Amino acid sequence: MRKLGLTVIFASLAVSPAIAQRAENMPTQITTVHLGDVKVRYLNFKWNEEAFEALEKGSDAPEAKRGWAIVRLFPDKPIIWNGKRVSGGNLLILNPASGNTPLSWEVRVIDMREVWVDTNVIAEPPAGTTLFTAPAQFEKVPDVADRLTVALSESEGGILLSIHYGNRLAKLLFTR
After folding, report:
1. Other CB atoms closer than 10 Å to residue 56's CB: what's the count?
2. Which residue did the predictor score with more confidence, 34 or 63?
3. In Å, how far from its chain's centre is CA 176?
4. CB atoms within 10 A of CB 77
5. 39-102-127 Cα angle (round to 5)
6. Average pLDDT over residues 48-62
7. How far, in Å, are 66, 84, 111, 115 from residue 52 at the CA level?
8. What digits encode the pLDDT tens for the residues 101-154?
């Protein structure tokens, strides 16, 4: 009986590979990046090449069946992206390619009081009103970011939002 009890204790302490993988993929911090009166907030999700390729190409993989919440935008004054006005608290979402529809960005107005985030995966975007969508373009780069990183920088004509995930880099130019 004592031997069975110890076996049960050790078995319950063992962590399955799937649980260990989920823990490793979880974000380790919420990061806020500032540039003047613009700030963005994001979670530093671990790079997953297979999931991102499924999203880029479109597939039946679970990661490619929904949008990914990438950053929340917090400009003190509205900024312009692709001719559209973006204000504080809007969510920037990366939507998967599907059929003839390419990988795309979406800016969505959301009510954060309704958000429940599963931090084991890139957050599923909450319901809200879509302001607009635009094609998403990532370039492959030699530097591999182990986790999602976002930067804001001055650029001719505006503010550059750089999104570096694994070996992919997207640059979005916002103006006033």
Report:
1. 17
2. 34
3. 24
4. 10
5. 50
6. 94
7. 12, 27, 27, 23
8. 999 999 999 876 655 455 445 677 888 999 999 999 999 999 999 999 999 999
Q: Which one is predicted more confidently, 3 or 6?
A: 3
Whole-prediction pTM = 0.83
Place of tokens 């949008």: 67
**Token pair in block for residue 162:** 């750089």
